[in-house]
What we know:
alpha/beta, 5 strands, globular, 2 domains
Amino acid sequence: MKVRVILSGGKLINPIVIICTEENVNQVNKLINLFTSSPKCNKELSFLSITPGIKIDFTRDKWRFQGRWSAQEKEIRVKSNLVLEKMLQTFIFELCNANNPDLIKKKTNYSNFNTPDEYALYLEASEHKSFKKAIFLYMDVFLKNPKSLLMPSAIELDQLRMLADDESYLSYVKNNGHYDYYVDDYNRATNKKPSFFTKPKGKNLNEEHYDYDTPQTSIQG
């Protein structure tokens, strides 16, 4: 059964609906309490709440993505069966995507780009800005609640340092991110042939191009 919680008051401009399950409602409540312990995170959520009708959905368990921001549906989706740290990281990352001015539809229209690779590189570079901001926000929450969240391992911290670099990040996501999916998305929308520089995928995304989840794997293994 789904549980709906309304976030309102404080610095929120419009109420935000949180949807979770009976199984994860306690973890989601803990996540919200941890998240709101950070004034910086509260500021991000307040900015998102300028848009009425925002929803945050923690109910999908059989889902290939860890998280997704859908601008069309005004909804952040986070996979329901993630551990607390991963769930919090994913939520923060998708919140940063939602607030990222480089990812608004006007700037990501296919007509703005001459090639599929140009389109994919733009999206990945824009996601990187969200990624770096998400690291900063997550660490702010962690430092305020060191006994409530697991410390990232040395390997995970090394990954973060590597992925903080623009070139390293773009190199990584070309093989591990959504780069090829974005290329396919562009080709499908514009009826162009597959790019010479990217290998074709057997399956395309069936949703709009606001899909992001790979960087969370690097924040917490």
